[in-house]
Design a protein that fits this description.
- With 228 residues, this protein is an all-alpha fold.
- The termini are far apart.
- The protein has helices spanning 4-34, 41-48, 52-63, 68-79, 81-86, 100-105, 109-117, 126-154, 164-181, 185-200, 206-220, 222-227.
- Helices cover 74% and strands 0% of the residues.
- The chain has one domain (4-163).
- The radius of gyration is 19 Å and the shape is globular.
- Helix 7 runs parallel beside helix 9 (164-181).
- It is found in: Cell membrane.
- It comes from Poseidonibacter ostreae.
């Protein structure tokens, strides 16, 4: 097989995401059909939208019959964080050629966490390793959400609390990032920024405000962060 090593490494690295996305995707599929939507919307959304948290939020958009402008604005606020951390991957993706559009489309929080936490193997063809890692992660979400929707269409479940599974995965990834960095300062800054945003702005603007505030604090305490 031409890219055997890249596929093998990408699969090994993606196993933690498989565990999380399988469950999360399944939860999304269950939640979607619990609102009386057709099961096939789950695989279609996971294939063409593939935006984890936004897909959960999209269910509420549909249910509330939100307009396109409202959806566009909310989507921008929810996913703008990826614009910030995506900038740090411009150098890595520079030589990915025709694969770059998909790598940009498939960049999720979890894929970013893997790309920045695990060191690259110099013997691998990096652009194909990045591609297979991204594709594996999307396939886990796609399969999980499709199975969840199909099962949920035939068996009734109590879906209360399922949305918390996404938060749980973020917590695990945060812990992994700390283990890799061994630097508590960025995490304290993130926590402080989130608390300030939580108590000072409306909930629908908390995410963007906390991100901007965290960036401001990171620049302010840049020397402290680097020294740690």
């Amino acid at each position: 097989m031409k890219y055997k090593n890249e596929i093998k490494k990408a699969f090994e690295v993606s196993i933690p995401v498989m565990m999380g996305y399988g469950v999360l995707g399944f939860a999304f599929g269950l939640l979607l059909v619990s609102f009386e939507y057709s099961w096939y919307l789950a695989p279609l959304m996971s294939l063409f939208i593939y935006a984890g948290a936004l897909q959960f939020v999209a269910i509420n958009f549909f249910n509330a019959k939100a307009g396109f402008v409202d959806i566009a604005i909310a989507t921008w606020f929810i996913n703008i964080r990826q614009s910030f951390y995506g900038l740090s991957l411009l150098k890595r993706f520079k030589k990915t050629g025709k694969l770059k559009p998909y790598l940009i489309f498939g960049l999720t929080d979890e894929t970013y966490a893997l790309l920045t936490t695990i060191k690259d193997d110099e013997q691998l063809k990096k652009r194909w390793y990045y591609f297979f890692l991204t594709a594996f992660n999307q396939s886990y979400w796609f399969i999980g959400s499709t199975l969840g929707a199909i099962v949920g269409s035939n068996i009734k479940f109590d879906t209360a609390g399922l949305e918390f599974s996404l938060t749980a995965l973020f917590v695990v990834l945060c812990i992994e990032q700390y283990k890799n960095l061994q630097n508590i300062v960025p995490f304290i800054i993130g926590a402080v920024a989130s608390l300030i945003a939580l108590f000072t702005v409306p909930s629908d603007k908390m995410l963007i405000v906390s991100i901007l505030l965290a960036l401001l604090l990171m620049f302010t305490f840049r020397k402290r962060v680097e020294n740690e």
